[in-house]
Amino acid sequence: MAENKQVLIGENLFDMSEGKPSLIVTHCKSCGTYFFPKSFTCHNPECVGKDVETTNLSRQGKVENYSVMNYPPPTPFVTQEPYEPIVCAAVEFPEGITIIGMMEGVTAEQVKIGMDVEVTVGTIYTKKTGDEVIAWKFKAV
Ligand SMILES: [Zn+2]
C-alpha cells in the first residue's frame, strides 16, 4: 500500500514564510475591501478603482459566529469513528473580513462567540485512499 500523502485543498491559500500560517488575501487599495481566497480583481460592485494587491491577513481574529455539525458530512468526506461533532466558525479579522473554517482543539461546548483564535493549518478530512486533505483552520489562543 502506498504511503498516505498530505494534499493541500488549494494553492495560494496560506503563507508559511514566517513560521506560522497567514491567510493570503487580496486587498483593494481603491476601496479597502479584502477578499479570500485571493483574487485578480476587486469584487465590490461600487468600487471604481479596483487597484488590488496581494497581502497576508492578520494571524488572529475573533469568532463572530459558529455552527456545530452533529452529523457526519457526506462523501467525499471520511470522518473518524466514532464521529466527533465538527465545529465551524466564522472568524472576523481586524481588516474587516470574515472567513469560515473548521475549529481545532475545541468541543461544541467550549467554542464561544468573541473567542480569540489564530489561523492554523491542519487536516480537514481524510480521503478513502488515506490521503489527508490540508486546509486552514482556527484554534483558540
Ligand atoms: Zn475595490
Topology record:
Layout: E1 6-8, E2 14-15, E3 22-28, E4 34-35, E5 52-56, E6 60-69, E7 86-92, E8 98-104, E9 116-126, E10 132-140
Parallel strand pairs: 1-10, 8-10
Antiparallel strand pairs: 2-3, 3-4, 3-5, 6-7, 6-9, 7-8, 9-10
Bound molecules: zinc ion.
Zinc ion is lined by residues 28, 30-31, 33, 42, 44, 47, 50.
Shape: globular
Order of helices and strands: EEEEEEEEEE
Bound molecules: zinc ion
Mean pLDDT: 92
Verbal overview:
This protein is mostly beta strands and 141 residues long. Helix content is 0%, strand content 45%. The chain contains no helices and 10 strands. The N and C termini lie far apart (39 Å). The mean pLDDT is 92. It binds zinc ion (ZN).
Quick summary:
This protein is mainly β and 141 residues long.
Features:
four-stranded antiparallel sheet; mainly beta; 141 residues; five-stranded mixed barrel; globular; binds zinc ion
